[in-house]
Amino acid sequence: MIDVDLARRLKDAGLGWRPARGDAFAVPDRDLDGEVFVVSDLVVELREVPEGPPILAFNGTTEWALDSLEAHEAIWLPSEAQLRDVLGEAFVGLERLPGEAGGWAVTVTGPDGVPERHVDLDPVAAHARAVLARLA
């Protein structure tokens, strides 16, 4: 998953988001740094019990101080597949980089038809960097 800073750069560059079930997002400027939320129809809470296996508790609603949030106030954390969809036919490939440092490179066809590589330690972030370059 990409970090919030990179996701914010995508949003600021104009990447649109129509929230859908399963999408991950962050809520900035509300003392919720580091929390990742997922659009869902049902809340399932993991409860650890002193004796026995963990319990998956199905909740209809969750009582919380933040009842709702306009979608534009959230920061979408797109998945690798969602970013690849944004790249569309420009996406050429993803490769793991050799060596101790490692990392990943996403290759896309640039606007002039010349291949471009976008590198990061994380494959999702490499996709995000490729999308940022296309939006620039």
Return Rg in Å: 18 Å
Structural class: alpha+beta
Count of helices? Answer: 3
Please state roughly what percent of the residues sit in beta strands, choosing from under 5%, 5-15%, 15-25%, 25-35%, 35-45% or over 45%: 25-35%
Number of strands: 8
Helix content: 10-25%
Mean pLDDT reading: 90
Protein name: Pilus assembly protein CpaE
Protein architecture, described:
The chain is an alpha+beta fold and 136 residues long. Helices cover 22% and strands 26% of the residues. It is built from three helices and eight strands, in the order H-E-E-E-E-E-H-E-E-E-H. The chain has helices spanning 4-12, 80-87, 123-135, and strands at residues 24-26, 37-38, 43-47, 55-59, 75-76, 91-96, 104-109, 115-120. The strands form three sheets. Strands 2-1-5 form a three-stranded antiparallel beta sheet. It has a three-stranded antiparallel beta sheet with strand order 6-7-8. A hairpin with a 7-residue loop joins strand 3 and strand 4 (55-59). Helix 1 (4-12) packs parallel to helix 3 (123-135) and helix 2 (80-87) runs parallel beside helix 3. It is globular and about 55 Å long. The mean pLDDT is 90. This is Pilus assembly protein CpaE. It comes from Nocardioides marinquilinus.
Provide a concise account of the structure shown.
This is Pilus assembly protein CpaE. By secondary structure, this protein is α+β, with helices and mostly antiparallel strands. It has three helices and eight strands; from the N terminus they run αβββββαβββα.
